[in-house]
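Re: that chain you flagged

S.,

Sorry for the slow reply, it's been a week of failed gels. I finally had a moment to sit down with the sequence you sent. For the record, here it is as I used it:
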Amino acid sequence: MEEKNYTLEEAIDFYENDRYDEALVALKQHRKNPEAQYYLGMMYYEGFGVEKDEETAKYWFKKASRQGSLD
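Prediction finished late last night. Pasting the structure tokens below so you have them in one place:
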């Protein structure tokens, strides 16, 4: 089955509506975008839809920060 391509806006909407399984797939499609990296960091930091992992959260937050994310 072919994986659907999601927009970043759809990915964030999934996150904001607690649809974390879909958010994870959609955000990873935009993993080079600092906003997506921030949300991935939040998912791992809070344990939303994934096992809580502060090291992985830091990885995503640092990537986002290096690209200019202010969050």
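What I noticed first: The chain has a mean pLDDT of 94.

Talk soon,
D.
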